Amino acid sequence: MSDEGIASLFNVVPIRPASAGVAKSRSEKKWSKPVMDSCGFCILPSLLLRAQRRLGLSATQLALVIQLIDFWWTEDQIPWPKKETLGQRLNLSDKQIQRLVRGLEQRGYVKRVPRKTLHGRTSNGYDLSGLVLELQKLAPEFSAAADAKRKVERRGGLKHAHGASG
Q: Are 80 and 117 in contact (CB under 8 A)?
């Protein structure tokens, strides 16, 4: 069975290694190799940023979501950062982190998953599947708006809309 056939069984889009190399090279040109090599990088869908207002996320909630995403390395394992770590990164107290997470939970974007070890309780896990589902719902609308904008631009409509004042 081909790579594409295997990938379709698991609903995965195969990534060609050359593409990843090109993306990294472009990122290194933009940010520099030392910056990209220092801590790695985090893949973040632009829709999350563009739909911030529609999602009803404050700037601080969005910053927290981005921090959680930085700990979310694989699709099959939710992120488990400590509140203290999130607080240090965002310059917020543990209580502030708890309130922000509670707000995200109330919107259905995040679900805290308690984690226990043999020695007692440890950091919570954060299931972001609610946020992913909401972004999936918004994606067609944002894609349609982008397509409509491109059509207007192709017809030269935005030249007139922006005008040449001054």
A: no
Domain with 148, as residue range(s), is: 32-157
The answer as to whether 129 is a domain residue is yes
CATH number at residue 40: 1.10.10.10
- Residue whose tokens read 């935005």: 158
Classify residue 19: in a domain, yes or no.
no
In a domain, 81, yes or no: yes
Q: Is residue 162 part of a domain?
A: no
Secondary structure of 96-119 in the HEC alphabet?
HHHHHHHHHHHCCCCEEECCEECC
Helix and strand counts by DSSP (H, E) for the chain: 10, 4
Alpha carbons within 13 A on the beta-carbon side of 89: 16
CA pair distance 6, 83, nearest whole angstrom: 39
Residue pLDDT, tens place only, 116-139: 777 776 789 999 999 999 999 999
* pTM of the predicted model as reported, rounded to 2 decimal places: 0.76
**Tokens 């594409």 -> residue:** 4
